[in-house]
Amino acid sequence: MNALGVRITRSAITAGQWRSILGTVNTNQRQQTFSSSASNDSNDGNCNKNNGNEITRKNITDADIKKSVFISQSYDIFTNLALEDWLYRNFDFSRHHVLLLWANDPCVVIGRHQNPFTEANVSKLMDKGITLARRNSGGGAVYHDRGNLNCTFFTPRERYNRKYNLNILTRALFREWAVKTEINKRDDIVINEKKISGTAAKLGHPNAYHHCTLLVSANKLHLGESLVKEDANYISKATASVRSPIRNLVDVNRTVNVPQLLSAVGYEFLRTSATELEDGGSTQTMKQRGFQLVNPTEKWFPGINVIRQEFSSWDWVLGKTPKFSVEKELAIKADEDKHLKMKLIVEVDKGLMTEIGIEMPSGERVPVVSQLQNKPYNEKNLNNIISALKLVSTDNVKQAINGL
C-alpha cells in the first residue's frame, strides 16, 4: 500500500532505478533558476529552444510515446509544488507522458498572480494551522486536504490538450462509479452545475502542464471558512477567483474514496492512447510504464530542496503579491459624545506597507508616520495602526498622527 492507501501492482522503484528513468531528463533545462522558470505562465523565455528538437518531437507518433503515473509520497504542499516544478523544468516528455497524482495536508493554494488577502482569511488560516501557498501557474484559489486528489498532466507544449486530460477524469468517474459529469465552458468538471474540479496550467517551452483538483471528501466547513477575504476594503488588480458552488464526490456516491479514485484515474490514463481519446484497454495499459511511487527528496530529485525553499519563502508566498491598497473606516473620538468618520488607507507593495495615510472628513489625505511603515502587511500590524489612531483626538489629528 502506498501513502494514499493504493495497492500498486508494479513494485515501487528505488532511487537507483529512478536514475535510469532520469535518462529522459532535458539537460538543456536542468540548470534554470526558480525565477526564470516562474517568469511567465505562458512562456518561459529562458528555456533553451531547439528548432531541430521541436521538429523531431513533431515526428513522434502515438506508438512512440510511453506513459507513467507518478504518485507522490509527500503530503506537504511546498514539497509537492517543488516536485511538480522540478519535473516541469527537468524532464523530457517528448516520448514519455506523465500523470502526477498527489494530495496535501490542509492548505489554501492561490494562483501565481493573486492577492492572498482578497482570496483567503490569512490570519484565520494561521490560527487553524492551514498552510498558505502560492503555486507557479495562474488561476484561482483552492482549498486542499487529504479528501482532495490533485492531478498534474505533463506533456511537451505542442501536445498540451486540456480537454483530453479532463475527459480522462470524467471517464474514470463513470467507468468506476457510473458518476455522470460535465465539462463546462471554464473547463471545470461539474455535477448539476456544482464544481467538483477546478483547473489551471503552466505553458512553457518545451514543456507544459495542466493541473486540476478532484473534491472527494474535503472538509467543506474549512473550505468555506478559508476562502473568505479579510474584513477590509481591498483595491487590487490581482487575478480574482471566480466563486462557484462546490460538491464533494461522496455527496453523489458514498463509495467514492481518494485511494480508489487515484487508482481509477491512473488506469484510465494508462489505457488511453497518448494523443487521442481512444480506449486501448488492458493491451494499451501493459505497454506503459505503469504506476511509480516517487519520493520527492534531494536524493531522488537533485535541487528539489532549493525549489521547495523558494515556494515556502515569505518573498514568494506574500512578497509576490501584486501591488494593492486597503481601506478601513475609522471612528475617531471628537468629544465625549461624538466620533468623526475617517478612513485609513494603506498602500502595499511586494507585501510591505509602503504608505500609510488618513483621509479626513473633508477628503484631504494626511500621511501617517509610523514605525510599521515598510513592515509586512498583515492583520496584526493593521490593527496596531488602527489602535494607535483611535487614541488620537481630532483637535490635533494632523500633528499627532505624524508622531505615531
TrEMBL record:
<dbReference type="InterPro" id="IPR004562">
    <property type="entry name" value="LipoylTrfase_LipoateP_Ligase"/>
</dbReference>
<feature type="region of interest" description="Disordered">
    <location>
        <begin position="32"/>
        <end position="53"/>
    </location>
</feature>
<comment type="pathway">
    <text>Protein modification; protein lipoylation via exogenous pathway; protein N(6)-(lipoyl)lysine from lipoate: step 2/2.</text>
</comment>
<dbReference type="GO" id="GO:0017118">
    <property type="term" value="F:lipoyltransferase activity"/>
</dbReference>
<dbReference type="InterPro" id="IPR045864">
    <property type="entry name" value="aa-tRNA-synth_II/BPL/LPL"/>
</dbReference>
<dbReference type="InterPro" id="IPR004143">
    <property type="entry name" value="BPL_LPL_catalytic"/>
</dbReference>
<dbReference type="GO" id="GO:0005739">
    <property type="term" value="C:mitochondrion"/>
</dbReference>
<dbReference type="Pfam" id="PF21948">
    <property type="entry name" value="LplA-B_cat"/>
</dbReference>
<dbReference type="GO" id="GO:0009249">
    <property type="term" value="P:protein lipoylation"/>
</dbReference>
<comment type="similarity">
    <text>Belongs to the LplA family.</text>
</comment>
<feature type="compositionally biased region" description="Low complexity">
    <location>
        <begin position="35"/>
        <end position="53"/>
    </location>
</feature>
<feature type="domain" description="BPL/LPL catalytic">
    <location>
        <begin position="93"/>
        <end position="277"/>
    </location>
</feature>
<protein>
    <recommendedName>
        <fullName>BPL/LPL catalytic domain-containing protein</fullName>
    </recommendedName>
</protein>
